[in-house]
Design a protein that fits this description.
alpha/beta, 42% helix, 15 helices, Rossmann fold, 2 domains, single chain, 377 residues
Length: 377
């Protein structure tokens, strides 16, 4: 099979470690290991540990979808066009939605007779303002959207949002994880502690307060086991108020804030936890953190029933709880604390679920699709 030259196009920076960045890098590393040449055409990126990164713009930070991301300022079309001619790519794989300034310029520079244009749609709108903004962006980029050979969405939720706001027909091709990296042989010393983990940005959309309120309910009902410990991993503007909540409700002896964690330490936290809780209130197009924690092979994953998390756990509805419902979450935490057999079944179910999204499986499907489309050019 022909070895391909593949360019991932991404308006944001690779310096961050959010879901889209992980998607690009996981696929890129796997494709490279298979002998393909991979290039990253991105917004302002300074990290030096990734090969073939072309930082094509200066970016500014904006708040979108209850998240902070960066968008490119206007770029030099001639410079981008020269680079595209030089790289002579077989495939450009654009992360969507995209800006007309960077990705739009790349798309306009591609010779459609030589290069296949693929897109992956990643988002779900949280509020009406994001939906309106997306419709405006769809109008602005309509010319480029018509040039795509194929568009994927990472979930049914993203597919529906793409269709409603961008008038895009897409095929579901889910997000990926490097299963083996998370499912490492564990040599962590165990203790008698029962660890409950929250990992995510400390912003309202990620819902950390829902977990803390659930722990408060357990405390008020005198149900907190003496060996239970809660770890809050992540940083963000709500950190001080969440710490104050714990102080006010006398939870500081069982709740520990560890701040932002590295990728390697994140895996250790997953492997030490008996329960991982992801209470995001919405705006999730998928649930890559759910897959990571399930792949680690030690935790029950409990997640809020938003559209993205539901797409991952739809076959395991007992692991979902209503958004913002701390009472139900507190009951589920105690159920899996007290019932070891049920906890073990949930862990094995999680490993099975996570394996379906291994980068080797999804990556091979993408390569087959790339080649199929190239043969039609």
């Amino acid at each position: 099979m022909k070895k391909l030259k593949i360019g991932f196009v991404f308006d944001d920076s690779l310096d961050r470690t959010d879901g889209v960045q992980q998607y690009i890098l996981s696929l890129g590393q796997y494709f490279s290991s298979c002998g393909h040449q991979v290039y990253y055409l991105t917004g302002n990126t300074i990290r030096k540990d990734i090969k073939n990164v072309y930082s094509l713009s200066k970016n500014i930070k904006v708040r979108f979808n209850k998240n902070i991301l960066s968008i490119p300022l206007p770029t030099n079309h001639n410079k981008i066009s020269k680079l595209i001619n030089q790289l002579n790519l077989d495939v450009i794989h654009v992360q969507m939605p995209f800006s007309p300034f960077l990705a739009g310029n790349v798309i306009d520079s591609v010779d459609k007779n030589k290069t296949v244009i693929i897109g992956t749609f990643h988002i779900v709108g949280y509020h009406q303002i994001e939906k309106i903004g997306s419709k405006i962006l769809a109008t602005i980029t309509r010319k480029q959207l018509n040039k795509f050979n194929r568009i994927y969405s990472v979930s049914s939720a993203a597919e529906q949002f793409a269709k409603k706001t961008f008038k895009i027909e897409s095929t579901i091709m889910p997000n990926v994880i490097d299963f083996d990296r998370f499912n490492q042989t564990r040599s962590i010393s165990r203790s008698n502690e029962f660890n409950v983990l929250f990992l995510g940005r400390l912003v309202s959309r990620k819902g950390c307060i829902t977990l803390l309120r659930a722990i408060k309910i357990l405390k008020e009902n005198h149900q907190i086991p003496i060996n239970m410990r809660i770890t809050i991993a992540g940083d963000g503007p709500l950190k001080v108020s969440l710490i104050n909540f714990c102080k006010y409700h006398d939870l500081t002896n069982i709740v520990k804030f560890v701040g932002y964690v590295s990728e390697s330490f994140k895996i250790k936290l997953y492997q030490k936890a008996e329960i991982c809780v992801f209470p995001a209130t919405g705006g999730e197009s998928f649930g890559i953190v759910l897959l990571e924690s399930m792949a680690a092979g030690n935790s029950v994953v409990l997640a809020a029933n938003n559209s993205g998390y539901n797409s991952v756990l739809k076959d395991y509805p007992d692991r979902l709880f209503p958004i913002n419902n701390s009472q139900v979450l507190s009951e589920k935490i105690m159920l899996y604390y007290t019932n070891k057999a049920l906890r073990r079944k949930a862990i094995l179910d999680g490993i099975k679920c996570a394996k379906q999204y291994d980068v080797k499986i999804i990556g091979d499907q993408l390569i087959d699709n790339y080649n199929s489309l190239l043969s039609k050019n």
